[in-house]
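TICKET: design request
STATUS: open
ATTACHED STRUCTURE:
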């Protein structure tokens, strides 16, 4: 039976369609880890990375955001490739890339503009370049914020008030030395262990930026907040070298644009949390000490500063201190 013209046309169109249809694009699933709730400055950074990368690649990349509040484990996962990327504070990072310890030194950065300016300059890029030799790619500096002290025992105004307080610190040698020098008892542990440790009295206090204290409701387990701003806490987007190496040029450009969007969203959220967070914590019942004798804390830390100068990179520390916006 001969085919009708209509059926022939339909068949031809089908064959042409099959020949010329765009090949199905392979999808890349990737995981980004971070330690905080979605509604936080890390959550904002991770979400911006996801939205931008998925949009720029027409969803060929699908980003799965996962919480892991043990940051050392997060970095290890990226190193061995069970996760593609992590947004982490530098807390544990010096154990992988020792040069990063330089930016963990207390009272090194004057304010947010100084910290962001240095990390976005060739100084910050020089540190990111050092991740490669450690089986990691340092992609972009993000931000955790200036750290402040909270505790359940007493108002802290001077270094003397810290004496004997058991303070949870990150697993970070530079921070531990500072708290030891101030006469506190630093107790390093992963963030995942913090709330039970505060509830059970294993530690009296902890120190973290305002955005972390707010997002994790630490006011429920801590009464006193002192705005010590004793150290700036950088965060960093770190990725797996195999994952980064497999990106073609266009996808790499898209990924770097997504990383910049992540940095912008993360920093904007830190700024807005800083503007509203202290009042929010007061409203939730915390006693806030705002008049801190910063000079007294810096003087008390002099022996620690001497060790940092010797054991870290003294020249780099001076460059960071002397940095001024152009
Ligand atoms: O205290 C810490 O461990 C870090 O500041 C945190 C809360 C995990 C955010 O990076």
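STATUS: resolved
RESOLUTION: sequence designed for all positions
ATTACHED SEQUENCE:
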């Amino acid at each position: 039976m001969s085919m009708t013209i209509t059926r022939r046309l339909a068949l031809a169109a089908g064959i042409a369609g099959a020949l010329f249809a765009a090949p199905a694009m392979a999808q890349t699933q990737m995981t980004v880890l971070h330690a905080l709730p979605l509604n936080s400055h890390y959550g904002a950074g991770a979400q911006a990375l996801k939205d931008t990368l998925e949009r720029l690649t027409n969803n060929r990349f699908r980003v799965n955001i996962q919480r892991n509040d043990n940051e050392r484990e997060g970095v290890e996962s990226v190193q061995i490739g069970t996760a593609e990327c992590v947004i982490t504070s530098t807390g544990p990072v010096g154990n992988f890339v020792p040069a990063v310890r330089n930016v963990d030194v207390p009272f090194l950065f004057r304010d947010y503009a100084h910290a962001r300016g240095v990390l976005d300059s060739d100084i910050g890029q020089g540190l990111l370049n050092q991740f490669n030799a450690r089986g990691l790619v340092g992609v972009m500096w993000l931000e955790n914020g200036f750290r402040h002290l909270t505790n359940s025992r007493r108002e802290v105004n001077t270094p003397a008030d810290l004496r004997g307080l058991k303070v949870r610190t990150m697993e970070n040698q530079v921070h531990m030395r500072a708290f030891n020098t101030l006469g506190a008892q630093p107790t390093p542990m992963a963030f995942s262990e913090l709330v039970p440790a505060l509830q059970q009295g294993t530690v009296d206090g902890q120190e973290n930026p305002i955005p972390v204290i707010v997002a994790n409701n630490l006011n429920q387990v801590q009464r006193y907040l002192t705005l010590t701003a004793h150290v700036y806490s950088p965060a960093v987007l770190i990725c797996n070298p195999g994952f980064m190496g497999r990106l073609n040029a266009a996808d790499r450009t898209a990924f770097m644009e997504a990383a910049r969007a992540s940095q912008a969203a993360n920093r904007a959220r830190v700024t807005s949390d800083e503007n509203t967070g202290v009042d929010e914590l007061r409203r939730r019942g915390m006693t806030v000490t705002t008049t801190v004798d910063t000079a007294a804390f810096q003087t008390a830390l002099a022996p620690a500063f001497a060790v940092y100068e010797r054991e870290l990179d003294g020249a780099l520390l001076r460059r960071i201190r002397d940095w001024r916006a152009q």
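CLOSING REMARK: Confidence is low (pLDDT under 50) at residues 1-6, 9-23. Residues 35, 71, 89, 91, 144, 170, 191, 208, 212, 233 surround pantoate (CB under 6 Å).
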